[in-house]
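Re: weekly structure request thread

Next one in the queue (194 aa):
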Amino acid sequence: MISAEEVLHIGQFNKPHGIHGELSLTFTDEVIELDAEACLICLLDGILVPFFVESYRPRSGTTALVKLWQVDSTEQARGFTNIDVFVLQSELEEVETAEGQTQEEEQDPTAWHDLEGYTLIESTTHTPIGLVTAVDSSTANTLFVVDRDGQELLLPAHETFIRSIDDEAQCIYLHHLPEGLLNPDEALDENDDE
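Done, posted below.
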């Protein structure tokens, strides 16, 4: 049996959406990403009952459309109207963001400091870019401070640009970076010419 201490209240089901048992879920705070194997806990007659999610579609900043397993009609979905919805706290802690980091790591810039001493490599050409000598988290955007043949470069420390990290070889493989990031002097020269 699931206890109240194990769950976190995330919102409430509203009216059914469509004719196939889909429900509108309004979140108390912001929309939480759910994967295909997610389990939502509903408070039914004073008992916390788990239901597996069949499909999940964010609709706005505070709502999503949810289809629960074996809830296949509007009539069945109506039984969930105004029902409080919870998730297991243990599941929420393990949910990974699209970039592959946990929410806690994503919000904590100190995790980037673990990559000091790693070599940045452009993944398509396998060309070394330079050595991460420091991580600057003093601004809103965390930056790698990179030594590139004696020249200091500042590159964004963001999951968007990272293809993979090899901890054993201490290498960070980057996707193709936007023009001008690796050769900022050239980008400035081009702008001066215009």
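The chain has four helices and twelve strands. The first helix runs from residue 74 to 78.
Next request, please.
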